[in-house]
Amino acid sequence: MALIALLRRLYAYKIGKIYSYLALQPTTSKGVA
């Protein structure tokens, strides 16, 4: 169970990083959305 929690945290961290990166580029976020 600890491993799953760790993977979830890592996944959320990656998603947050990608989301913030796209948020800094309006044109890219528009193309993705």
TrEMBL record:
Domain of life: Eukaryota
Protein name stated in the entry: Uncharacterized protein
Species: Arundo donax
